[in-house]
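Lab notes, practical 5.
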Amino acid sequence: MKDGLLLIDKHSGCTSHDIVAAARRILRLKKIGHCGTLDPAATGLLLLTVGRATRLTRFLIRAPKVYEGAARFGIVTDTYDTTGETTSEHATDALSAPEIETAMDGFVGAYLQTPPPYCAKKVGGVKYYELARRGEKVPDEKKEVTVYEFSTLESWQPDIDLRFRLGCSSGTYARSIVHELGQNLGCGAALAELRRTRIGAFRLEDSLTIEQLRERLAPPTPESDEAGGSGAAPAAAKTAPAAETGERPAGSAWIPFDEVPLPFDQVVVDAQQERRVKNGQSVLVRDLDGQEGDWIQLLTQRRRFIAVGSVVERIGTRGVAVVQPKVVFN
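Output from the prediction step:
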């Protein structure tokens, strides 16, 4: 487990960096990153890049996200979630389920979103939450995001948090959406719970918690060695960590580097093209649907992932194109 993707189910009360730090200790590797932050109170899927896969972060971080969560009506907080200080309270007697659903439908599509004042977005190298904690004005910079789905998971009842599903583009703040929903309804709302269930093609059900990962990769203890009896394997074999055996102790939570699915087309190159790609030289490929500027995942005939390239020129109308390697893995 030196190069690839690791799917982790983040627990509440820790930062995304805490998860990365824990994974570095467990795998005994320093080169680990992640593809999209989760707030400390949020749980769910965190996609870690390991080894060579850290160079794929920029291609994976833009994947759309899916969340399940809960919105609490009648309150407004400074952080836009229930972990913050309540700044106002409002009656919810006039709210109805049809009214809420209509308001939620209004978010579907592209719109300009204002990030929460307490978030990790930076301005001039300073994070928004650092400005907010110092009592300084936080910029009101809007960003276009896309909401693919914002729907209820169950019918809303008064005095009960609204359960919802949110499908959105990368960089969308669920806290802001819930806050704006409350504003549109005239009663205020705060995010009470959030769990990420999907990042592009990656699913929460395939992930492991950090504790499960630690247990699966831990070498056998002396006690378990003794329990093996006289028919047990030799000591050297028994004490080798699973991460060093070539097995997949993390199961579906581990995706080896050569099997990483990227959100663009794949091209298999022949032996001569492979040599050119490894030297950073362009190659002529056929049967390609991509347009100029599109990214391409380049594989060898043995399905080894060797580079990410870009279509620099289309030749004719029969799928022939020139691909220039941009990120090469030797």
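Observations recorded by the TA: The first strand starts at residue 4 and ends at 10. The chain has nine helices and 19 strands.
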